[in-house]
Amino acid sequence: MSNLSFPKGFLWGGAIAANQAEGAYLANGKGLTTVDLLPTGEKRWDIMKGNIDSLSPFEGEFYPSHEAIDFYHRYKEDIALFAEMGFKALRVSIAWARIFPNGDDKSPNEAGLQFYDDLFNELVKNGIQPVVTIAHFDVPVHLVEAYGSWRNRKLVHLFETYAKTIFKRYKDKVKYWMTFNEINMLLHLPFVGAGLAFKEGDNKKQIQYQAAHHQLVASALAVKACHEIIPNAKIGCMLAAGSTYPYTCNPEDVFEAMENDRESFFFIDIQARGEYPGYAKRFFKDHNLTIEMEQEDEALLKNHTVDYIGFSYYSSRATSTDPEVLKNITSGNVFGSIENPYLEKSEWGWTIDPKGFRLTANQLYDRYQKPLFVVENGLGAVDELTPEWTVNDDCRIDYLKKHIAQMAEAMKDGVEIIGYTSWGPIDIVSASTGEMKKRYGYIYVDKDNEGNGSLKRYKKKSFYWYKKVIETNGESLDY
């Protein structure tokens, strides 16, 4: 673990999302957003996949995003805690429906714009750079209702208007932007990733890839606008990453693993290289998919590629073509994976693979030759508050320590990494399950799965550990 070094100015910090932290879901003119329709419990997973029969919340269901951890009202105290840890950056997202409540409003909501002005001012005042995701699993519900969300070309220009609005407003405060959070999630949880709801008989693949094309064009237009409005800013894309291992050295398994990875690389290939790759064209042909494009799309994609690749890394995956082996697929993660006998698992069944982090970083850098930004990494675990009002989260420290060490190794390999914002530095609502008990933070929030609790904040053991990591610029990972 010794001999670790990170460059001066490396952006240490944490990452949250508006819909998992802010709460205040209809405050000051905010419109309903897709995540506001995700209850806890059995219905949640089905809705996330696009099987939704109501575009308004159900009576008697609990919706964790509606209050979340009330960051909307408590951000000053939370930022003070992040500043105490020495954060250099905080990744946040802007809720589209705070700025344009319906998504297609003629003018933006000033109260929403002002909230993010205040938030960014507070960050800057504390020496913390805002890293801003424009769309983090967030579509105004009206756009789903009126246009069918991202299946409709109309959203490209509505998104462009939204992006230009926030670039102009925050150009003096925000230098790092990302277009879509985990853009590849559109293929796995289409309602979460793109607000897509399906009816019986829909050709889901056709709809998903058409929606993907619209998001990719919208991303290119956002890159163009960002470069024009804030010439000294950097704007990236964002991938839910994690290498897929073949279960055996059978060439069939190796090819299957490559195909799995390409399903995700497809999006970044276009955002970073500027064109549809050959394997995607073959996939469309083999599956009788026709992507409708406008004349200028190819030039837009080619001329407005991203400045850096943001990515999340939690675990690696494994795949096989053997039907018997496939019976051992774990469902803990959104990305199904065969159990890897060489790796431990988290309480939620996610494989713990620090070496896979180094491997993924190398893979992305080799492929794109653009700077990387690790914008999510962490361990979701059940935490117990002690009588001394802290949490002894050694397992989380151990996970992060090993992953940061492997990130340092990747940088020694020649991989350029801008920064590291671990996921959920304060406990927030879990995106996949809607639970509070699946905690990632250095700061404990007193709230349970049913929404009960004081919302008080308490420092965990990892708070002091991460503070030291930042203080020493990653040279000390001991605790």
TrEMBL record:
<feature type="active site" description="Nucleophile">
    <location>
        <position position="376"/>
    </location>
</feature>
<dbReference type="InterPro" id="IPR017853">
    <property type="entry name" value="GH"/>
</dbReference>
<comment type="similarity">
    <text>Belongs to the glycosyl hydrolase 1 family.</text>
</comment>
<dbReference type="GO" id="GO:0005829">
    <property type="term" value="C:cytosol"/>
</dbReference>
<dbReference type="InterPro" id="IPR033132">
    <property type="entry name" value="GH_1_N_CS"/>
</dbReference>
<keyword id="KW-0326">Glycosidase</keyword>
<dbReference type="InterPro" id="IPR018120">
    <property type="entry name" value="Glyco_hydro_1_AS"/>
</dbReference>
<dbReference type="GO" id="GO:0008706">
    <property type="term" value="F:6-phospho-beta-glucosidase activity"/>
</dbReference>
<dbReference type="GO" id="GO:0016052">
    <property type="term" value="P:carbohydrate catabolic process"/>
</dbReference>
<dbReference type="Pfam" id="PF00232">
    <property type="entry name" value="Glyco_hydro_1"/>
</dbReference>
<keyword id="KW-0378">Hydrolase</keyword>
<dbReference type="InterPro" id="IPR001360">
    <property type="entry name" value="Glyco_hydro_1"/>
</dbReference>
<protein>
    <submittedName>
        <fullName>6-phospho-beta-glucosidase</fullName>
        <ecNumber>3.2.1.86</ecNumber>
    </submittedName>
</protein>
